[in-house]
Amino acid sequence: MSLLRRHLLAGTAIVSGLLASGVPQATAAASGRTDKPFLDLLTKAADKRVAEVVDGLDATLAQLNNLGQARPAARSLRLLTSVHVWADAEHHHDAALIAPMTRLADALAAAQFDDGLFDQGAVHSPPDTAFSIVDLGLLYGLLDDDDHASTAKLRATLKKILRKAGAGLSTGGLHTPNHRWKVCAALARINSFWPDARYTRRIDAWLAEGIDQYERGQYSERSATYAPIVTNPALLTLARLTDRPKLYDNVRRNLEATLHLVEPNGDVETVHSRRQDQKTVKHLSEYWLQYRALALRDKDGRFAAMAETVQRRGADQTFDETPLGDFLAEVLDEPELAAPLPKATAAPSEFTWHDKDSGLVRIGRGATRTSLFGGTDFPDVHAISSGLSTNPTFFKWRKGAAILDSLRLSPQFFSLGHFRAENVERTADGWRLWADVRAGYHLPLPPQHRRPDGRYPLTDDGRFWSAMDFPHRPKEWRTLHTEVRAAEADGGWNLDVEVGESAVPLALELCFRGGGTLTGVEPVPGQKDTYQLVKGYGTYTSGDDVITFGPGNGSGPRQPAVVDPGERYTWMGGDLPVSGLRVLITGRSPLAYRLTLR
């Protein structure tokens, strides 16, 4: 008996609105205990996705057969399954879907290795397999509950895949923090159909490590990709399927934090992330069903407001990994999500929120939002690497549609790269960010460390490696202290920047969201979408909103319009660009300069 059917028989589902086959559509739509507009939105979007999925079937199968990418195939099968079993869908029990669904399942079975695992950019990968198995487990439950004769063979294939995967997932390893919870969720799915002590022991072992969550609700990866797409859904699944209600607390705290990270237009702050999204824009839509689930569970009006916002915007918003129609399967799997939301209460619009673990400050003032960031990992580890927070953006400001996506500072000091604040702290009138960096000139080795053959070990001096035995050499240090003080003023900000004592060229880089218009600035030759503010004030306009910034600080060969990302990037042939319209304000240290934003 499937999980959904057990829920229905236990009376915990919204029975009248979410029976799959064999129930008249009028019955599914008539109950006042379901959010009919919510279900209609998902149903129409899922039906609309069918043609896209079927038309792209050959490309999806090529990804699976040639590159081992099982996840697109599993997600495509999930979408087709949702409309096949759902009585209100246009494609309910559509015989034309059986062939593509069977092709997908058969291809997944053929791609599965003897150990039950798939490849997905990594060989025999338990975590990547878990992503597919979570989807396949969900859709198997829907098909099992539907119990339609046309899918009997398909269900038998899926059963083999799922049971085979259980062995690999209950013994294999992984790479990242969020992988633990995804593997647990996959095992919980399999165990809900075919209980096995091996599965529960592995779930217990991973969970015994503790959930990697900080005090203010961010998980250790601080990511607006992995929290809503992996960790939160996995923890909700585990809470439900393994009877661990305390896991709801972790999701609740993450959603509490996210209330302060969401911009009025639905973007979610990512500057503090330790993953690849630290340089991209993510969106509220991925949090949709999590806010809905906790709003219903806790009767939380703030969470209801967030869920209503996504629902109201519908297709007129950006969806990241999960297209609008793909959410239907999750609601059919967890029918409680279709209940009417509690009364919404306004999400916070006036707030100052300081996450000390992430080094992030978020300030809301009506239509404006500010981010101050002093929490990169660079001051602690002095490395640029995947899994580290390295984004040098230390200030962001939104004034309605006018968006300053990034403010950075790049001194040309021994090619050490951007200013990356060591922390951010409250002051009497605002906030302070600071960093001290140094580079050494190496003096002769003391006699006890000299070698007649001159063969010294390769060592790192903090910028490069050389056979110089750097750790044992005395140093003559050059230092650079940078401090930024930010204070709210006249509806905007004053940022006082002090750099010294070494004398080096530097550039403040303001990057505005593409699509707006700049005035008062001069193009920088040879640099696309890059300008310099030499004197006076510039403006950035988007729609009816304007940000005025400045003043300029001159120009000339001693303060070139150059942003130096540092040797860690340039040696590898890389750089550190920001997409949008860049404005440089250049100078030379020692420098005391006030940037005003209004």
Secondary structure elements and their pairing?
Elements lengths: L2 H8 L14 H6 L5 H20 L1 H11 L2 H16 L12 H14 L14 H21 L5 H18 L7 H17 L3 H11 L18 H16 L5 H13 L7 E2 L13 E2 L4 H11 L2 H13 L13 H7 L16 E6 L4 E6 L2 E6 L4 H4 L13 E5 L2 E10 L11 E4 L4 E12 L15 E3 L4 E3 L7 E15 L2 E10 L3 E8 L4 E3 L2 E2 L6 E3 L5 E5 L2 E6 L16 H4 L10 E8 L2 E7 L1
Helix pairs in contact: 3-5, 4-5, 4-6, 5-6, 5-7, 6-8, 7-8, 7-9, 7-15, 8-9, 9-10, 9-11, 11-12, 13-14
InterPro entries: Chondroitin_lyas, TAT_signal
Keywords: Signal
Kindly summarize this structure in a few lines.
By secondary structure, the protein is an alpha+beta fold. It has two domains: 3-338, Glycosyltransferase, CATH 1.50.10; 350-440 and 474-597.
Structural overview:
35% of the residues lie in helices and 21% in strands. It has helices at residues 3-10, 25-30, 36-55, 57-67, 70-85, 98-111, 126-146, 152-169, 177-193, 197-207, 226-241, 247-259, 288-298, 301-313, 327-333, 378-381, 567-570; strands spanning 267-268, 282-283, 350-355, 360-365, 368-373, 395-399, 402-411, 423-426, 431-442, 458-460, 465-467, 475-489, 492-501, 505-512, 517-519, 522-523, 530-532, 538-542, 545-550, 581-588, 591-597. It has 598 residues and is an alpha+beta fold. The longest helix is centred in the first third of the chain and has 21 residues, at 126-146. It folds into two domains: 3-338, Glycosyltransferase (Alpha/alpha barrel), CATH 1.50.10; 350-440 and 474-597. It is globular and about 80 Å long.
